[in-house]
Amino acid sequence: MKTLLAALLCAALPSITFAADRPEGLAAAEAVAKAAFGTDCDMNGMTEVPMAEPDGEGFGHSVYRFSYRASYQSATDPEIEAELYQLFCGSGAYNVRHAFVLKVSDTESPKLVSFATPDLDYAYTDDEMGRLKAEPKVRGYRATGLLVNATYDAEKRIITSHTAWRGIGDAWDSGTWTFINGDFVLTRFEVDPTYGEQDPAVPESYVVYEAGK
Fold first, then answer.
1. What residues contact residue 212 under an 8 Å CB cut-off, 6+ apart?
2. d(C-alpha 81, C-alpha 69), whole Å
3. Which residues belong to the signal peptide in this entry (predicted)?
4. How far is CA 117 from CA 43, 53, 91, 177, in A?
5. In angstroms, rounded to a whole number, what is the distance separating the alpha carbons of residues 4 and 19?
6. Cα separations (Å) of 136 from 45, 55, 123, 158, 187?
7. b/e 80-102 (16+ beta carbons within 10 angstroms → b)
8. Does pLDDT of 201 surpass 80?
9. Is the pLDDT of residue 16 over 50?
10. What pLDDT is attached to residue 143?
11. pTM score, two decimals?
12. Which tops the pLDDT comparison, 123 or 22?
């Protein structure tokens, strides 16, 4: 009974490729990212990037496999099979850059995943940039294909990023994108644009976008 239960649980979980396994589509996904970003995705000059280890620090590629049914499909249509490639593009002193490439069974070529991010308007009250004159305002949205310190939750199909604006991480931004109907959709974005010790008179951070609000 325990063996059967374990088998059923394993079958229900998304498939993740780690370590020495190098999927057939990995080279094509790398080519898409390198063509799009050039030196911004030079993969730290490595000729062959290793596959990421579980609980690693992002210095490697990961591949996630799952299936879904799009809104235009009927209940009897077969599910679409998807492969999501999280690609290590490079690293600096305290941030790691990732690109994501998606290959689905109903198209021939892998595509670069683009992520909507808010373009913010704000101003500081002081030269030390420790306090804002007013809360940040969203003046529009941009699309980016590179995320910083990104992680993927295979259970929830959610990608998150967390960008440290400098090494000590006192100023930062963080985004959340959820897989919906074949694309990753921005569902939350939070930012702390102030530097130095936290001022108790101002918020620690600002949620500038949250889906449904």
1. none
2. 9
3. 1-19
4. 23, 29, 21, 10
5. 27
6. 37, 34, 8, 25, 18
7. bebbbbbbbbbbeeebbbbbbbb
8. no
9. no
10. 97
11. 0.86
12. 123
3-state SS track over the chain: CHHHHHHHHHHHCCEEECCCCCCCCHHHHHHHHHHHHHHHHCHHHCCCCCECCCCCCCCCEEEEEEEECCCCCCCCCCCEEEEEEEEEEEECCCCEEEEEEEEECCCCCCEECCEEEEEEECCECCCCCCCECCCCEEEEEEEECEEECCEEECCCCEEEEEEECCCCCCCEEEEEEEEECCEEEEEEEEEECCCCCCCCCCCCCEEEEECCC
For the chain, the domains span 14-113, 114-213
Residue 94's pLDDT is 83
3-state SS, 165-203, equals CCCCCCCEEEEEEEEECCEEEEEEEEEECCCCCCCCCCC
Predicted confidence (pLDDT) per residue in 40-93, tens digit: 999 999 999 999 877 666 789 999 999 999 888 899 999 999 999 999 999 988
Q: In angstroms, rounded to a whole number, what is the distance separating the alpha carbons of residues 31 and 80?
A: 23
The pLDDT score that the predictor gives to residue 56 is 64
CB 97 within 8 A of CB 87: no
pLDDT for residue 18 is more than 80: no
- Tokens 């030196």 sit on residue: 39
Q: What CA–CA distances, in Å, run from 7 to 2, 11, 137, 209? A: 9, 6, 50, 40
